[in-house]
Amino acid sequence: MGDLIPCGPQAAAALRRALLVWFHCHRRDLPWRRTRDPYAVWLSEIMLQQTRVETVIDYYTRFLERFPTVESLAAAHEDEILKLWEGLGYYSRALNLHKTARVIAERFKGVFPSTVEELRQLPGIGRYTAGAIASIAFGVKAPVLDGNVKRVLARLFAIEERIDQASTLHRLWELADRLVSPRSPGNFNQALMELGARICLPKNPACAECPVRMFCEARERGIQDRIPAKRPAPKVPHCHVVAAAIRKNGRYLLGKRPPGGMLGGLWEFPGGKVEPGETHEEALVREIREELGIEIRVLGHAASVDHAYSHLTVTLHLYLCEHIGGRPRTLYHSALKWVSRKQFGRYSFPAANLKFFEVLK
User: Disulfide: which of 83, 107, 321, 352 matches 296 by Cβ 3.0-4.6 Å?
Assistant: First the structure.
């Protein structure tokens, strides 16, 4: 197919028709596809970022039941939002949801802006998300470019350059913009994403089932298995982290992580990274002194868990500890609380911390 210009408008129109017919017949019945409410579309798009569809469905349903309107979300307490989000990961998304809901409730009087330009001014909404909301909810002829769409376009046009290069991304955005359907942009964008999720797979694409295979230059040249090209993944670093279950009068000391950083707004057992040359006990005593300004005695090891984040893996070690001096202060955390084991369920924790609850029984 080469480029959209030499192939002509007729071929582009034929590709759109084939993809839309396939999508109409084969699309998954997902809850966010049953509405064009911009609030629901926005919520689904934020939740679907770097997260599997199967994981999102239950979270999406619970979130809409608890916060059916943007105003109800804007009025909610941050802790309640993070608790509903618990386990979904990338918690900055939840905090940006809250910020955006407040902006829409206050500045836009509860009415979602409909243009890509206005949407991109909102917290947590980039070019892709703005295009998705504008096209699906408002019928705006706006392109989208997520991981699935990048792969589909790279194969359709046999783009062999790395797709993480700025020049390639620029070309992909241009192609997506030229190709998006002027009459049904929302369905067309969803069809592209659906094609990448179900047919044009990263490995072993199901080319025989593809509704636009006759337009695919990579398939014609037999190079679909090596497109798209990416930079080799860097080695993911690993670190050891210690955490303190400090118990006093039947309660444990929890700290709320500061906003803006990794896992911001979540509650945790205080602690930190083990530095080279330190024992776990030495690291824990140092971290608690730096974060809380108190002295502890390490009583014993409770449990260890491995956990993977997007940019590193950690082994988190929990130790039972005794508070022996000083008054806890918020030197690092935004808040501190003494909480009984039965009250843990009221607070939102990082996934790795959740694994310790059974041990502390």
Answer: 321
Distance (Å, whole) CA 354 – CA 348 = 9
What's the chain's length in residues?
361
Closest to 175 in 3D by CA, of 197, 152, 148: 152
Pair of tokens at residue 305: 């868990």
Rounded to a whole number of angstroms, the CA Rg of the chain reads 24
pTM of the predicted model, to two decimals? 0.88
B/e letters for 83-100, b = 16+ CB within 10 Å, e = fewer, are bbbbebbebbbbbebbeb
- The span from the CA of 267 to the CA of 257, in Å, is 6
| CA separation, residue 309 to residues 56, 236, 275 (Å) | 18, 9, 19
Tokens read off for 45: 């798009």
pLDDT in tens, the chain (361 residues): 444 444 567 888 999 999 999 999 999 999 999 999 999 999 999 999 989 999 999 999 999 999 999 999 999 999 999 999 998 988 999 999 999 999 999 999 999 999 999 999 999 999 999 999 999 999 999 999 999 999 999 999 999 999 999 999 999 999 999 999 999 999 999 999 999 999 999 999 999 999 999 999 999 999 999 999 888 878 889 999 999 999 999 999 999 999 888 889 999 999 999 999 999 999 999 999 999 999 999 999 999 999 988 888 999 999 999 999 999 999 999 999 999 999 999 999 998 888 898 888 7
Query: Measured between alpha carbons, how far is 213 from 210 in angstroms, rounded to an integer?
Result: 5
DSSP code, position 310:
S
- The set of catalytic residues is 45
